[in-house]
C-alpha cells in the first residue's frame, strides 16, 4: 500500500510577544480610565469643600 500524504493544518501556539503587547495595551487603557475617574472624583470633592468653606453650601439642614 502506498502511503497517502494528507495536508494537515498546522496549529501554532499563541504568540508570546503579541499576547504581551495586547495585555499591555489593554492594561494601560483600563488604567487610564481608572485614573481619569479618580481625578474627576478628586476635583468634585475639592469643589465641594471649597464651596463649604466659602459658605455657599451647608451640610446642616436649615430649620424653618
What would your notes on this structure say?
Its main location: mitochondrion. Keywords: Membrane, Mitochondrion, Mitochondrion inner membrane, Transmembrane, Transmembrane helix. The chain is mainly alpha-helical and 64 residues long. The protein has a domain at 18-55. The protein has 1 helix and no strands. It has one helix at 16-54. The longest helix is centred in the middle third of the chain and has 39 residues, at 16-54. It is rod-shaped. The N and C termini lie far apart (104 Å). The model has no long low-confidence stretch (mean pLDDT 88).
3D shape = rod-shaped
Radius of gyration: 30 Å
Fraction of helical residues = 55-70%
Number of helical elements = 1
What would you call the structural class? mainly alpha
Largest sheet: none
Strand fraction = under 5%
Overall strand count: 0
Series of H and E elements: H
Mean pLDDT: 88
Rounded to the nearest angstrom, the distance between the terminal CA atoms is: 104 Å
Low-pLDDT residue intervals, each spanning 5 or more residues:
none
Keywords: Membrane, Mitochondrion, Mitochondrion inner membrane, Transmembrane, Transmembrane helix
Family: Belongs to the cytochrome c oxidase subunit 5C family.
Main location: mitochondrion
Subcellular location: Mitochondrion inner membrane
Amino acid at each position: 500500500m502506498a502511503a497517502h500524504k494528507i495536508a494537515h493544518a498546522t496549529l501554532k501556539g499563541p504568540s508570546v510577544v503579541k499576547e504581551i503587547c495586547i495585555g499591555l495595551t489593554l492594561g494601560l487603557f483600563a488604567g487610564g480610565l481608572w485614573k481619569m475617574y479618580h481625578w474627576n472624583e478628586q476635583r468634585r470633592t475639592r469643589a465641594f469643600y471649597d464651596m463649604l468653606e466659602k459658605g455657599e453650601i451647608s451640610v446642616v439642614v436649615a430649620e424653618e
